[in-house]
Every structure is written in C-alpha cells, then in structure tokens.
C-alpha cells in the first residue's frame, strides 16, 4: 500500500528522492509513452510544440485532464464513477437554459452548477457506501437518469444561451504575454487544480483514501471512516465534472452531447496513468499525465486522418492492456 503522492520530509534531498522514485517507479511507463507520442507528433507536425500551439492544445485538453483528476479520487478509493460524462452534458444544458443570454444570471448559475455537481456526487457516494450498491451500478444508474432527464427537459434540442462572462474561462486568457501571446484561463485553472490535487493526496485525507482503496477492512479497523472517505471522493468527482462543464461550455457552446464518452475517456486516462482499477495504488499526477497522453494520442490520430472510431478502439485496448499488465506485475 503506497500513496505515490505522499513524500516524507520537505527538504531538497527528500524532493530529489521523491522525483527519482516517480521517474523510476509508477510514473516511468506513462512518461515513456508520453515521450514517444510527443516525438511522433513533432515528426508529423513540427510546429505543434510551439508555445502558442501548445497552449491552445492544453486549453482543449484541460477539461479531460480535470475530469481524470476527479475520476482518480474515486478509482483509487476502489470505486467507479460512470456518471461524469452525462453530468457534464446536464451541467452545460442547465447553464444555457437558466442563463438564457442574461449576463446578470451568469455567476448565480455557476454556483448552481457546482451545487448540482456536489449533489450528484453525494447521491453516488451515499448510495454506494450506505446502501451497499456497487458503484458501477450506482453511477451507471445516475448516468441513465441524467441522460433521460436532459432529454425530457430539452426535447432533444437544448435551449437558451451562454453569456460571454460564462464563456470567459473556456475561451479567453491573459493577453499580451511575451513569447506565448495569450495564456488561456483554462490552462491556469488546470495548473491550480493539479497543484491542489497533489497537495490533497499528500495530506492525511490522501493517505486515508489510498488505504481505503487498498484494504477497506484494515483501514476501518485502523480508525478510518471508510464510507465518508469514499463519499468525499465522489464529491470531488462531481466538482471536477462541474469545472469541466464550465470549460467545455465556454469553449464549444451548448450541445446535447458535449459530455458523451467522457466518462470512458477519464477512466482510460486514469488506467493509462498507472492507477490500479481495484484501488489503493496510483498517483494523481499519473492520472493527469494519462489524460494528457490520451489527448495527444487522439491529436496524432487526427493528423494522420485516422477514423474517429479508432479513438474508441484505442480506449478499449488501453484499458485491457493496462489491467493485464498490472495483474502480471502483482504476480
């Protein structure tokens, strides 16, 4: 049982040891895969890694990376969250309907979106832990509920509109920055969430979360509140979906399928990042790098004009391969 985001001490020497363990241990595979894909991208599109192009790419990748961070908390605790994709869609549709192009409604509706994300996470957590319904079933049911509710509410065609204030985070950034010209707000938000996630996993809560995922019975005997810890993980996943919805809605606008498939992409990213599906092992940094790698892989597919269906095939292959490799390593 190891929390790969927990490091002893705070001095320079301990930081060096921590970095060495990450690059030679759990993060080595995903860093290697990421490097190979980056080389392939550079060979196909040499200017892809120019500062302006790279920041534009990170702006579009930010929602998936943030979702992967939220999914990490759930998976490392030993559970699943299949509802995040439909939650993202529901959040965007709700925002458009409630704001309806009225600037004064923007920030109250943003608060509503976070409340909805927390509510969905709370329901998922309580049903899973208190009612003992497997999280796969709980979140699959929530997925169906949200998809059906969105369709009933909109009739299959989302209504309303998003204001420029709402679309600020997804589209705009700090301008007139030397070298890069514009630093997207989405990238800054992504960095802030990444730092917060790492610090959270280095806290007592992070240690408890990993212990619960590794062996809930042992963690409970040691005094951990297993149900509450897992519920918090679902709450964090719900909040990450709200943030992703705000960024996606801001960037792409209103759509009834904006979150379609994101739940599987997030799970694939987490597994690709070396997180064990059974819980108790893995790094939030690895999960976020997994999402970045997956997004880069899809970009490479686009450059080579590979069919979009290949993305789904790749996700399936990655999940099976990652689980098989993890089982072999455990043996």
Describe this structure in words.
This protein is mostly helical. It has one domain (2-330): ABC transporter involved in vitamin B12 uptake, BtuC, CATH 1.10.3470. The protein is 71% helix and 4% strand. The chain contains 14 helices and 4 strands. The chain has a two-stranded parallel sheet. Helix 4 runs parallel beside helix 6, helix 5 runs antiparallel to helix 11 and helix 12 (262-272) packs parallel to helix 14. The protein starts with a strand and ends with a helix. Residues 1-10 have low confidence and may be disordered.
Write the layout of secondary structure elements.
Blueprint: E1 2-3, H1 12-24, H2 28-44, H3 51-76, H4 84-99, H5 106-129, H6 135-154, H7 168-171, E2 173-177, E3 181-184, H8 185-201, H9 204-214, H10 216-221, H11 226-252, H12 262-272, E4 281-282, H13 284-303, H14 309-330
Parallel strand pairs: 1-4
Antiparallel strand pairs: 2-3
Helix pairs in contact: 2-13, 3-8, 3-11, 3-12, 3-13, 4-5, 4-6, 4-11, 5-6, 5-11, 9-11, 12-13, 12-14
Question: What are its keywords?
Answer:
single chain, 331 residues, mainly alpha, ABC transporter involved in vitamin B12 uptake, BtuC, two-stranded parallel sheet, two-stranded antiparallel sheet, 71% helix, globular, disordered N terminus
Compose a concise summary of this entry.
The N terminus is likely disordered. The protein has a single domain, classed as ABC transporter involved in vitamin B12 uptake, BtuC, CATH 1.10.3470.
